[in-house]
Amino acid sequence: MPEVTRIMQFALDYHAEDELFVVFTYVIGKYPFPRAFAATWIEKYPSLTFALLKVHPPDDEGQLPAELQPIAQSIFRNIIRSANDTSIAALVALEKTAKSIGELKLEDYIELLMLSALSVRSKQLVQEVLLVLNDSRLQYCPPSAAAAYGHKHMLGVAFDRAEEAADECPCNEDGRPRKKQRVAPSQAKLTFGPDHEKNGQVLATIRIDARSSVRLHSHIRLQAASKAENRWINAPIMDGLVTQAGKGELRINLLHPAPPEMELMDWNLYDAGSTGEPFFLIRP
Fold first, then answer.
1. Helices 35-44 & 2-13 angle (0-180, nearest 10)
2. What is the pTM of this model?
3. What residue spans define the domains of the chain?
């Protein structure tokens, strides 16, 4: 496994996606099922979740197989994190696993709602993701007055948060910030934070005199403004939450995986509104 991990990391660092999927698919097909390996790598590269569901598919009722149930929350989380790239495939994956979504604890379901509202950037797609999640709960969650109250009001909060993000930082159907923004983005340099492996923490350095409305608990969007030297990749975009704000520096917990070249690139930082104190997303 240490050799396999080195191969996977090499493929990830050099954007060898085909090789990444081949090795991952081979390993997760072994017995006994390497649950920790699978959970680790879908966090690093969310689209691998679809390979996991292909090898270990849900049943006809929308229930995940037994070997995947202990990491169900991680699977749904990474389907949502991949939605900007996979679009309709993410919606289908959520529909095919509806029963397992309905059986989640309420706090885990709320986390998925808010993750969708903050990280799915296309206005149409985020609405569809939220409605698919809600339909799964209505169909399979054991009925109770408390659950009905929680589902109704958290769905409203999630829609409000998604609409605010769309107003503050409008994006096109591909999830990329539009060129015409009400407020011009700030320029930032990013470095990996000490807790990056745990919660995606990065440090953003910005000019002290830069005009920006970003503050503590702001929802921000980062778009690469330059290409890394000798790297042929599309300009990545990441959402994040500001967990600490000081003069010229922000601590940000990313909601998407950072590219290996992050520190070699310049970034545009967009303000996408305020979240209050989102404890359910900041927690590890």
1. 10
2. 0.93
3. 2-168, 186-282
